[in-house]
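Lab notebook, bench 4. Still working through the backlog of constructs that have no structural model yet. Next entry is a single chain of 147 residues. Request: give me the structure tokens for it.
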Amino acid sequence: MSGREAGRESHEADAASPDSLEVVAGFEHQKLEGWVPQLATPEEIHAALEQAFDYRGDVLITRKDGSKIEGYIFDRRQGKSLADSFARILPKDGSGRVAVAYIDIAALAFTGRDMAAGKSWENWIRQYWEKKAAGETDISLQPEELE
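Model written out:
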């Protein structure tokens, strides 16, 4: 039997066995709105800014010089040190994009509403079936209004 044939047989056997299928645990959404993380160590700063990047709301960054910037973190660049790492922010006031070095960050607060929290495909489907059960036709599901 060639290697190709051997690989095909094991793959076919795995596909037939539900016990061999890959199962991934579900993702539990953390409630970060209002959280002010401790930023005592470089590891805590990196971890907090990773969570801020995944957050779908605004954050407030207080720099070590006392200036503040509130907005959405749309990108981050992790270097070898805090001086080489940057968070890129779309400010809430609509001014141009801003890059802030991790080393310049004194405090971080999750201030805005997390737009992804509580939103799910299942909620939209539930709304659809409720409308259909109520006899509505030409059903259109619309997202919630932004604040």
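Notes after review: DSSP finds three helices and five strands in the chain. Residues 12 and 18 are 12 Å apart (CA to CA). Flag for follow-up if needed.
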